[in-house]
Structures are given as C-alpha cells and as structure tokens.
Amino acid sequence: MEQSPPTTSPEDTTQPESTIKILISTDNHLGYNENDAIRGKDSFRSFEEMLAIGGREGVDFVLLAGDLFHHNKPSRATMYRTMSILRTYCLGDGTINFQILSDQSLNFPNFGQVNYEDPNINVRLPIFSIHGNHDDPTGEAGRSLAALDLLSAANLSDRVDEIEVFPILLEKGSTKIAIYGLGNMRDERLHRMFAQGHVRFRRPEESPDSWFSIFVVHQNRDNRGRGAKNCLPESFIPEFIDFVVWGHEHECVIEAEESIKGDFYITQPGSSVATSLVEGEAKPKKIGLLEVRNNNFRLRSVLLKTVRPFKMAQVCLRDHKHLDPADPKVADKISAVLAVKVSN
User: Fold this and answer.
1) Within this chain, do residues 225 and 323 fall inside the same structural domain, yes or no?
2) Which of 121, 253, 264, 283 is deepest in the core (most CB within 10 A)?
C-alpha cells in the first residue's frame, strides 16, 4: 500500500470519479453535560460543524468510530437534537456516487439495506458508525439494542459492527473499499477472542487484494499501565488491513502514522468535545477528510472552530510559601492562588 495524494493525471480523466472521499470522526459524546447552562450545547455544536464541513467538502459519506452518544440511554432532549441535526444535514436531494456490492442483509441486519436505498426517503449524506463503550447495546424486550439502532430505524444512519465482521463493500469508478467495523467490548474479552481466533474478518470472494480495506475500532490503543490484555494490540489486526480508524482515545493524533506491528496506517481522530480534565483533551480538536483512489490515500485534517477552549497547567503548591496545611482557611487561599493562575 502506498500513501500518496490521489491526483488527477491528464492521461486519465476518469480519476475524479474514482476518488472516494470520507469524513472521519469519533467520540462525539452527544449529550455530554447537557444540563449545564454554559457547556450543555458544546457537543452538538461541534457535531453540527463537522457535518457542515462534510457538506461543503462534498464527502461521499461519514465514518464514525464509536461513542456518538455520551450516555447508553440518551435523554429525549439529546435524541431530539441529534435527529434534528441529522435530518438537516443528511436528508434531502442529492446524488450518491458509490454503490454497495456486499450482501446488505449481513451488513445491516436490522432492515436489510442501507438507508439511502430506501425508496421512502431521500438521503444525501450517508453515515456509517460503530458503537463505543458509552453507547453500547443493552438487552431490552428480548433484543440487544443501542441508541444507534434508533437512528437506523429513522433512516438517519447505519450501524456496522459484528464479531464475525462482514465488510461493507463500496465501489466508485475503479476504486473499491471494504469497511470492517468492530464495536466496543470489554478489552480483556476482546483480547481473549482475538488470541483464540474467534474474531473473523470475511474478505471479498473475488480479487480480495484489489480492495482498500479500512478497519474501524473503538478500544484502548495501548496498555498505558492498564495491563497487557486491557487493550487491542496492533499485532492482532489482520495483515490485509490498509487503514485503521481508531476510536475511544480522546487525544487527537489524526495524522496517519504507519504501524510498527503491521503494514497499515492508523489515524486517531480523538474526541470532538472535552469530557475529562486530562492533558490529551487540551490539544486542538480535528476531524479527518480521507480520500481513497484505488490503493492510494490522502488524509487531510480540518480544525474544528466551535470547540470550547480548554487549557491545562500544573500548579505546585509547595512553591507558594504562604500556604500552611494547618491553616483552617487554606482551602480558600488555594482557590485564590488558582484564580490568579487562571486569570493570568
């Protein structure tokens, strides 16, 4: 596989029609802090900006790597706002310039077909998503359902994640893409299933090496002291995979980097809203625009401008000699020190 810009050559005028353009994002956490008077709309604002960028850039579809929602059971207010945004940016007249060649009953078992092929609705911007650890499916009334299934029932997005991973096979001109989606599960269990060969990736039957294979996953990327089995090692990823979209990790490391364990590239888009006070969340939030032409790709990052600024710094209290732990008012004095730090 070669990482190179899919440029148009004068000798080949069919190339623009063979470029598949994908908007890549993850960990949008819609509904995070929704009852906060100041920050309650932050997650929705960035999500809407992201879809607006996709419309302006003319992407073929959106690919989300998990945790679209912050809560397993989003509130009605969150569902209403999410569906309103999707209705605005995803529905309407438009041309879908790629086709799905795989068995859609395996890719989309809920309704047996991708949403834009439903004759009762017009979809101009398809969204494919896996679930994360925040919005994973739970058992209700004898079925395993996630909040993403509600969006699927409304023809607003399509969920793609199974343990026996059947890829969505897309074709546009001469370019063929196979998308493998694996939703989140407990890291130790997934590690064991990979080690025992219980996670199966189904490759296209005809000319399997002619497909550009994308793997979308939502797991811990490395152990970081969690234990060797509390992450998904890159060595477990099948060797035929060309490109990995890694969700769950909130730090934005969106530039494609070559794996040290396999012959593929990895992008880690990071979250579109800060949900914890850690250093990685303080980095600029971005989304990715991935262009694929045949077996070449180009990844371009786009800075999100609606993200609430977040900076992080360390304060060493021992440097402030006037602070006495025995002072009954020490908490107030510490607050004053921090207030000065923030204001400066």
Assistant:
1) no
2) 264
